[in-house]
Amino acid sequence: MSESAPVAVEQRPETPEPPKKERRHDEGTGRLAALLLSPTLIVIGLVVVLPILMALRQSLYQAGGVDPETGFVSEGETFVGLENYTAIFSGDTGERFWNAFWNTTFFTVVCVSLETVLGVAMALVMHKAFRGRAIVRASILVPWAIPTIVSAILWRWIFQADGVANALLNTEILWSTEGWQAKFSVVIADTWKTAPFIGLLVLAGLQTIPEEVYEAAKVDGAKAWQAFRMITLPLVKPALLVAVLFRLLDTLRIFDLPYGLVGPHKDSVETLSMLAYDEAFNTRYGPAAAYATILFLYVALAAYAFVKILGADVIGEARAKKPPGGGGRRARRRQSEPAPGTPVAVGTQTGGA
Amino acid sequence: MATAGLTSAQIRAAEVGPLRRWAPLIGVALIVVYCLAPFFWMVVSAFRRPSDQFDNSPLPSPWSLQNYKDVFKEGTGFTRGLLNSLIVAGTVTILTLLIGLVAAYTLARLDFRGKYVVLAVIITTSMFPGISLVVPLLKLFISIDWINTYQAMIVPSLSFALPLAVWILTAFFRQMPRELEQAAMVDGCTPAQAFRKVILPIAAPGVFTTAIITFIAAWNEFLIALSMVQIKERQTANVIISGFTGAAGRDQPFGSQMAAGVVVTIPLVIAVLLFQRRIVAGLTAGGVK
To answer: What's the gap in Å between the CA of B166 and the closest CA on chain A?
Structure first.
């Protein structure tokens, strides 16, 4: 199951020539590492991998089928094969599923795009600012620190019919009811909460770009926009891609925000997570597991596609430290620019080398 | 490097007009307002009297603690909810650090086959949608009578907390020069002793930062707590807040909810203010939420 690992697993892990002093320890290192890693891997196996497999199994069963001999509703579960899945794609349930599917996709595409643009803009501003850095850094962490469900209720309050949003905009929109405005309110709330987070990660990437590069560009007569497009964007790309990937996967499983801001059973904002939760809540575990499995596959597919197409290099800092010609040639080719490091690598640069 | 950047930028700022000089400051102000305005509104709304709840003036007049009194009244279960949140998030943090420390150190220091595969698998698992784990676990916990227990919230929370902690800790350990252990081992320490006596004390700030980030993530968790617990005595503060019902039937008691939101958020905001530098370092080192 974990083979669907979206983050580049294709590199050869062995360094061709490890530094001399470490070679001594090579014997038995693998066994020691396995021993030390086993608690973490066992826990992850138990709380992540096992449940995913259980969900897969559960999605093939249905509770309380009718016993063909007695005609009574039987206790326990009956194996129904792919029935839960076929049911998802047809009839009323099909409509509800596709609605949730498109809502999830809509939120993901719109929120992540908005947050990326806003986040990059914020990072650029913070990078240029030399006064008030501490206060910006503190305030940017506030939306991140507020529990999502609390921020959902906060935005529900802001978007009340006689709330402050309508008062400020001088409108009378019923935000948190059905319709486009409900979707819109979720997008606004999500963007508020996470654009600063992207800004933070991109800022870390920006700070690794040496000032001299810009000075050289200026000497060569580059305009500000050119410098941004030709220097800033490519150099900050690894950091940005990782941030966007995490946000993408996070938004695909969005639950708290629409649940708290608009509420359950609202067609306009119901997402796949909410749908699966609702089915499980009504003890229809078979269909719930089917929804959960589909969402899982969707997330895995999105992550895989993102990594393949855009070449997000999540564990890139590991490879950046490899001697040239070592592992991860493919990843290197994909991001051929001499990346000074993703934010993931920010700390690494100063250390190991 | 910072100073060099500063001076050259200042020179540049001096070359251009006042608009360019003030633009970054205006930008900063905009970001601060963007981030804080909704939070400000939560605080303001929480301090209004319930009778002027729908007042839209920028400051409450008069200020009132009534919403807070309502929140902590008997029967809301909020006090107990805070305690439950603390128990769950605290246990998750401690367990995660105990398990994750060793793994992170191993990943940062030992060179072995499949290292990056392991790292990739760990970080991948943190991206799995929570609902895909909650649905099967819900049924499992019902059958083993774990519903309405703390462990029913703690165990699934490890699924996101552990990868997060391992990821951030690995980045922190990588920053530490290898010479530290080598020196310790030259002085006769075993690798385990070097880890315990030399590395851990120096890594303490990083470990502490990871603890804060993990705690915040666990404290903010909602879906697991909502699914696994149905009785008020075990619900976390987040679930309690979302379930507040107004005295007047249908009306959502926003005043109390805002007050409760302030209570739940303030400890985190204080932590953020105190440790902002560290938290930013931790978040950008891990690159994860």
So the answer is: 9
Contact B124 A40 (CB under 8 A): no
Q: In this predicted complex, what is the ipTM?
A: 0.88
All structural domains of chain A with their residue ranges? 82-350
Burial class (CB in 10 A: 0-12, 13-18, 19+), B285: buried
The residue of chain A with its CA nearest to that of B214 is A145
- The C-alpha of B77 sits at a distance from chain A's nearest C-alpha, in angstroms, of 17
CATH of domain B75-286: 1.10.3720.10
Measured in angstroms, the CA of A345 and the nearest CA of chain B are apart by 7
Q: Where do we find the tokens 């620019």?
A: A337
- CB contacts under 8 A, A 64-93 vs B, are none
Nearest CB among A44, A139, A276 relative to B35 is that of A139
Which residues of B fall within a CB distance of 8 Å from A172? Answer: none
CATH 1.10.3720.10 domain locations along chain B: 75-286
Question: Among B63, B27, B29, which Cα is nearest to B46's?
Answer: B63
- Contact state of B238 with A147 under an 8 Å Cβ cutoff: yes
CATH of A82-350 among 3.40.50.740, 1.10.8.60, 1.10.3720.10, 1.10.340.30: 1.10.3720.10
Task: Provide the whole-model pTM.
Answer: 0.84
Element (H, E) at B179: helix B179-186
Give A7's contacts in chain B (Cβ within 8 Å).
Answer: 120, 123-124
Which residue, among A257, A309, A286, A278, has the nearest Cα to A107 in the 3D structure?
A: A257
Mean pLDDT of successive 10-residue stretches along chain A, which has 353 residues: 40 46 59 90 93 91 66 69 85 89 96 95 87 84 93 92 84 81 94 92 88 87 86 88 89 94 90 94 89 93 88 59 41 39 33 26
Question: How much is the pLDDT for A257?
Answer: 94
Return d(Cα B121, Cα A9) in angstroms, integer: 8
Q: Rounded distance, CA B40 to CA B139, Å? A: 41
Contact A142 B114 (CB under 8 A): no
Task: Say yes or no for a CB contact (<8 Å) between B41 and A164.
Answer: yes
**Strands annotated E in chain A:** 61-63, 77-79
Distance of CA B245 to the CA centre of its chain: 27
Handedness of CA A317, A322, A327, A331 (dihedral sign): positive
Closest CA to A235 of A341, A330, A146: A341
| pLDDT, tens digit, 9 for 90 and up, residues B45-65 | 999 988 877 788 888 888 889
